[in-house]
Structures are given as structure tokens and as C-alpha cells.
Design goal:
With about 110 residues, the chain is α/β, with parallel strands linked by helices. The chain has five helices and three strands, in the order αααβαβαβ. The longest helix is centred in the N-terminal third of the chain and has 17 residues. The protein starts with a helix and ends in a 7-residue tail after the last strand.
């Protein structure tokens, strides 16, 4: 049962990823939007991220990984969906930053 749920979840997100236009994603605008107070909280508490390692677990399109990479962090964009990891890597390329991509099931992490 659990495997079937995970398969459907992965399939859904892979289909979603196939429809994403990375050229249309404005990473900085998204991350620093007034409607994203949690991001201001994160920025305040993380401080200078240059050289820090950050794991973006369940990265989706990778906006957070790309944002922090643009600020000097070393980011790993991870997701259960191979399609979403591909989108995150394309978004990094479009934004001229380096992000490492990993396809992982977060539930397998001990």
C-alpha cells in the first residue's frame, strides 16, 4: 500500500515538473515576497550563508536551493520526484548558480 502511494506521488510530481517553465520562475521575487514571512525569519536566523551546506529536502522546483546558492551557499536540492530534481537543476543553470541534485525518499533517512 505504501509503495503504491509513493509511486502515485512521484508520478504526480513528475507530471507537474514537466509543465514547469523555469524561465518564468523569478527566484528572488518569490523568496523575498511580502507574502513569505517565513523566508524573512529563515534569513534572519541563518545569517550569512556563504560556504554553508544546505539540504533542501522536498525541493520541488528548487527555488529555495537556487536562492541560497545565489547567496553563496552550497546546496543540495533533493526530492522524491526525478522530474522535480531535473527542474531544480535547470533553474540553477538559468540563474547561473551551482546546485547538486539528489533523488531521495526523505522517509528513508534515519
Amino acid at each position: 500500500m505504501q509503495e503504491e502511494i509513493l509511486r502515485k506521488e512521484q508520478e504526480f510530481h513528475d507530471q507537474w515538473a514537466a509543465a514547469i517553465d523555469v524561465e518564468g520562475i523569478r527566484v528572488r521575487d518569490y523568496f523575498e515576497a511580502c507574502t513569505a514571512p517565513e523566508n524573512r525569519f529563515i534569513l534572519k536566523h541563518l545569517g550569512d550563508v556563504r560556504g554553508k551546506y544546505l539540504l533542501d529536502l522536498g525541493c520541488g522546483a528548487g527555488e529555495n536551493s537556487v536562492y541560497f546558492a545565489s547567496r553563496g551557499a552550497r546546496c543540495v536540492a533533493s526530492d522524491y520526484s526525478p522530474g522535480m530534481v531535473d527542474v531544480a537543476l535547470k533553474l540553477a543553470e538559468v540563474n547561473h548558480v551551482q546546485v547538486e541534485g539528489k533523488v531521495i525518499n526523505a522517509m528513508d533517512i534515519d
